[in-house]
Amino acid sequence: MFRASARLACRLALVGFGQPAIAQAAGLETWLLAQSADVPRGPGMYLDLIKLIPVLLLYLLWVKTTHWVETDTRELNNVRYEMWNSIVFFAGVLGFVLLFLIPIYVLGLAMLVVAILAPLFSYIHVRNQMVGEYEKVMTAYHIGEVLNDFLARFGIRRVFNKDDDGVDRTGPPVFFLGKSAGGGQEDPSRVEKAEESEYYYGAKQLIYDAVSRRATDIHLEPAGETTQVRYRIDGILHAAEPFDRASGDALINIFKVLSAMNIAERRKPQDGSFAAKVDGREIDFRVATSGSRGGEKMVIRILDNKTTVTRLDEIGMRPKLVAQLRELLNQPSGLILIAGPTGSGKTTTLYACLRDIDRFLRNVVSVEDPIEFQIENVTQNEINVKAGDNFADKLRSVLRQDPDVIVIGEIRDEETAGIACQAAMTGHLALTTLQATDAFTALRRMRDLKVEPASLAQSLSAVLAQRLVRLLCEDCKEPYKPNPEFLRKANLPPDKVDVLYRTPEAPEQICPTCGGTGYLGRTGIFEMLVVNDAIRELIRSDASENAIKAEARKNNMIYLLEDGLRQVIQGKTSIKELQRVV
User: Three-state SS string across 297-353, please?
Assistant: First the structure.
């Protein structure tokens, strides 16, 4: 049988390679026949178990690594999923083929090892360039963490990745502080209690990952046997790797402990806060929980002072609008409303206005719920709902503190709206935010809050409405010729708009800068209704919204959509994004 197979193999070689290979094939046939003559055949097993064991181990390694590469490429979103999965899989297949074709066992085994490890380490090298320091694999830190996890199964405390002084500072550069956000008094017992959990380092990794990806919120949502994790980045929720249900519940408990919340209460809503140092800078986190049918859900708001825009000319306003707003901020009295729906950046604009006011010559007092950012030389008051505080009572006490500027976090009820108008009429400059879709809807909202037209007309100086649009990634945005019909509908001159920009239609590879989303960061689009004498009379007479719009248009007011088109023409955002927002 073996002689016949040898002759057949040689003849196939002749057919496949032609006449130049005849001499080589004849020599191969002679060698194979000689080998078969020297090897005695008889009863028994022809399988060498000792040689089979390494092959099985390498097979299991190959299965494990291909599964890991598939999972990892799906999570990263900035590496080529199809390419790397194909390379790792087919390289392993080739290695096993070579193992059975090469007659020398050691050489075939070496080729299999190379076929499995070479593409694997190539992928590791590429993916390590795209992730943070503490997300890299096969580094000294990563190997130490794997060994720590292995030793933990036998009850051995962490041994590797410690400082020279023996202090355990493992994991990402996240150090939880035993205090509430913005608070000065630390409570180390919170951190000590949280460190007792075996999932403590998972909590650090979650926080580090969210901050590194510029997330503003972390959503931990129970879903059957898992806990889903989603990050809000640039206003859009993005799914992250989920946890199993036990791990997810443990992480929620850790954050509840850090926030001084009751871990036994899982149905009633709870609020809390904590702080942490991430990469050396202190960041505040606001935590809110609520019971649901599937279990307890948690949302963590990330308040990073470093990423917060602090100047009016950095939030997307056109220069003329910045000059108008600064002129209003320098007035001794009046009410300035900043309107927009939830998540439209109202608070960021409010703080930008505060930073533009001369806080050394004017007494600035704020009433907020909660205080999101600390501002120098501003007396900031936080509403303590649990203690029975509310905006109206706090505002009455603030008015007795001789303020020049009063900042109200948000108008939520009739009493607060009335006091804000009264403060503006009695010689104070009042700044506040209001939930409304545009500047004209804000006027109707104030009327819905029982503010008299005469009082509103006398106190109101301006209404600034805004939205946030995502900015196109500069590294992957692509130009295109706009449709002339669309330009005409948008009141844009077709002869002056040669090109617009959009996200890539069919990208060849995922952009590492934006992670394949096509957008990076956000900016604001604005409209401002400045209340002059004519508009003041229309408000006092409770005129219709259309009448006020017509008068505002006479004063060259630019609407939200028009300001958004300005950003589109400048190549900062896309038509599709503008349509999503406005």
Answer: EEEEEEECHHHCCCCHHHCCCCHHHHHHHHHHHCCCCEEEEEEECCCCCHHHHHHHH
